[in-house]
Every structure is written in C-alpha cells, then in structure tokens.
Predict the structure of Deoxyribodipyrimidine photo-lyase.
Amino acid sequence: GTTVVWFRRDLRLHDHTALSKALSSLEKDDSLVALFYIQPTLNDTFTARHDYYYETLMKHVEKCEKKGFPVHFVTGSLEEAFHQLQNQLPDVDQLFFNADETGGGAKRDQEVIDYFHSTSINVFPCIDHTIHGATEVKKQDGSLYKVFSSYYKQWQQLDKPSIQQVDLDKVKEHAIDKRDSFKRGANAYQKLMESKTGKWKYAGEEHGLERLEDFTHSKMYDYKKKRDFPAVAGTSMLSPYLRTGAVSARTVYYTILDELGDQANGQGPETYIQELAWRDFYNMVFYQFPESKDQELIEKYRDMDWNQDDELFEAWKKGETGFPIIDAAMRQLNQIGWMHNRLRMAVASFLTKDLLMNWREGERYFEEQLIDYEPASNIGGWQWASSTGTDAAPYFRIFNPTRQSERFDPDGDFIRKYVPELKDVPKKYIHSPEKMPEELQEEVSCEIGKDYPHPIVDHSTMRKRALELYKEKG
Ligand code: FAD
C-alpha cells in the first residue's frame, strides 16, 4: 500500500514524529508519499507570517526533492483535497501527520479524522510540536494545571520523549513521484511562491539548526544574565523556527543537554529549558481553554470598560507614543516580524495599563506582524500582561515604561537602533527625551513635538486609572 506523510507546521526532515513513525510502519513493497495541503483562502490575508512560512515551505520542498522525497500538493476544500488524494493514489492505506492540539488546527485535524473514519485509510495523528503534549503533564488527580510553577515541577519529573530519527535512505527507497497527477495542487503552490517576497533569507531547517548550534556553543551559558537586554542578542531567536517546525523542540532540548554534559554551571541552560516548558504550558492552557483567544480567563475581568481610541492605538502600532522603549519595540516588530520577550511584556503592559486598551486588539496586531505567531503563547502572553490569565501578572504591579527602559536598555543602544530620530540624544535624556532643554533639542536635531512626539499619556495618571478600573471589578 501507500503511506502518506502530511507536512504542516513541521517543515523539516530531522526528528520528525509523523515521518519517523510512518517509516517504521513500512513493509518492503510499500510506497511513501509526501503531501502538503494548500487551503485556497490561505493567501487572502497575506502577512509577514505567511511570507516567512512560504519561504520556509519552499526551502523544505526543495530539500525534500533533493533527498528523493518529492512533495505532492493538494488544494480546494479539505474534502476535495482528500478526493484528489484518493483518486490519484487509490492504494493509500495510511496517513500520518503531526497534530495540532489547539486552535483552528485542532478543529481541522478532527475533520480529517472524521472524514477517514469510514474509509479503509488509517489515520495516525502524532504529538510533535511540544516536548510534552497538552494532556501529558497532569496533577495526581488527573486534572490539568493552571499555575506554571507547579506545572513545571511536574514537567521536569517526566521522562522526555526521545528524538524521532528519520532514516533518509529509507525515505528515498520508498518514496514515489506521482506529481504529474497533482497539477491543480502544483499550480496552487506556484501561486504561493509567487506571492512571497523572498526577504526572509534565514528561514528554514538549515539556518535554524545553525542558529541552534551557535546558541548552544556560545550564548546559552550567559542566557540568564543577558536575556532581558534587547540591545544584546542574548536569546536564541529560535521562535520562528519552532513555529514553522523547521527546528524541533525536542532537538533544541537535547542539543542543550548534550552541550552541557556534566558541567556544573547550568544556570543559563536551566533557565532556557524553563522557557521551553512555558511554551508547553501555554499550549496546555489553550487546550484547556479554547475560548481564551476571545475571553479573559479570569471571569470578573470579562466586561472591562476598555478605552476605544483609534488615535492612541495607531500611535502604539506605529511606535509613535513618545515613550522611546515602547516605540523602539513596536518598530522592531514592524520591521523584522519579531520582538524581544522583555519588550513584548512592556508593550503589552503599555497598551493595557497605560492606554487602557483591550488586550485582544494587541493580540490581533501581534498575529498580523509576528513571524513566530503562536496562538497559545501569544494569547498566554497577552492575558499575562493584562492580568486576566490563569497565572498572570497581578493587576497592581504595573510596569513603568520609563523605568523598564532605564533598566533594560541602560545606554539606550536599542532605542537608537530603532528610533533614529533619537540617535544623537545623550544617555541622560534617552529614556525621557521630552525633558531635553530646548537648546539641546536643537543641537541634536530632535525637536520634541515635531521630530519625536511628546508622551501620548502621563504614566502616573494612567496607572491610577488602571488600578481603579481593575479594582472596580473586585
Ligand atoms: P528565547 O528566550 O531564546 O526562548 C527559547 C524559546 O522558548 C522560544 O523560542 C519560545 O519557543 C519559548 N519561549 C520563551 N519564552 C516564552 C514564553 N514566555 N511563552 C512561551 N514560550 C516561550 N512566543 C511565541 O513563540 N509566539 C508568540 O506569538 C508569542 N507572543 C507573545 C506575546 C506576548 C505579549 C508575550 C509577553 C510573549 C510572547 N511570546 C511568544 C513568548 C516570547 O516572547 C517569545 O517566545 C520569545 O521572545 C522568542 O524569542 P527567542 O526565540 O529568542 O526566545
């Protein structure tokens, strides 16, 4: 028979659960087919994330081709796509894929399972995207956690899944090429490729693995010390690769452990592994609360009287708030589709506590702009910052954006990189340029109110209003 491996957000050929399991199931005369489904509406909303994903997809398709494992494309509605598959490959008897446990992907996977239920095709959804799946880390009574610290204790206790080796010789041996019968899909793929800009040169498995090597060889020991300073490239920047599956989370985990060996100084690596556990945690939270993209997890905050102010929102989006660190962060997001974690917390806090705007608006804007957009982590991050999540920042602990700036970008290097209007502003004023005396503004060619805005709100006033807004809810 023919076994199909359906690629999705797992665009790699190393440590791949679905492919590895499919290979183990093959008998001597069985054929193997690589599949990719193109949803016709995929291109209706073309964002940086789509662009980045298509680049990764192209690299993956090319790599598969090189390894003798040509990718077949199907398109149309899910049902039409499966008809194409069954018509063109009548002896398909197994379908393997790495399942989504949350969001739209989980719904689609259920449709797939339902569709094939009454056919002779066996479907094998695999857990692959996280180190531990959403239901693997449980309390003694079998229920799921709501608080990270106790989740993490349990997470650490569990045996970790092993690397899912992919024998590329075996892939080549069994792979078949029936692409001539899949013209419609091939055209749809061509269209995707034409729509991408090609600007994401570093997308894909090869670059992702290089970045991982680079991080584990040098930066990871200082991770704990440097991870909070956006001017220093102290974090791994692996999130876009984890999102597209160009690098597997298990591989990241084991590469770190291997590099560490029995060295005692494990603080950096330990903190890093804890971040991977946060990723698993938010996947579990979203699994547990599928409505959390639209609903505050804490009930009493469900009908907050958020500000609706297009002008303020635009200023936040564009990075024109007059708070240099917030502006630099938003411009980083707009320019490179990625933002440093410390700054994601700062801008999310700013939107919800200084502008008193609905966190959903911010969550959606991140969805449009981030190349690493991961619904579970993004919703988790936003509900954390807006104090509405299961294990969130308490509402009364409000970030002071200027203080954040002084602490985490002390010399203002990050600010100057992304807010060129401020490039000549001396360190003394870089966090509050509105305080520059007029002569100095002239000297550094940065007139406040003209070249760079006055702060759009007064932090201490807004802080008080935020406290009232939340307190009112009990
Ligand atoms: P590193 O510090 O090198 O961490 C390694 C990996 O651990 C990351 O790649 C990521 O997969 C995981 N990780 C780290 N921190 C977190 C965290 N707090 N929650 C979940 N996973 C984490 N992360 C996303 O991948 N996609 C998102 O859409 C996303 N949205 C966020 C929104 C807000 C408001 C906040 C506060 C955080 C968000 N995060 C999101 C988490 C975090 O900011 C990013 O994962 C991190 O900045 C990615 O950079 P890195 O790979 O250099 O991280």
Remarks:
- The first helix runs from residue 17 to 25.
- The chain has three domains: 1-128, 130-162+205-288, 299-472.
- Residues 227, 235-239, 242-243, 275-276, 278-279, 282, 341, 344-345, 348, 366, 370, 372-374, 377-378, 381-382, 385 surround flavin-adenine dinucleotide (CB under 6 Å).
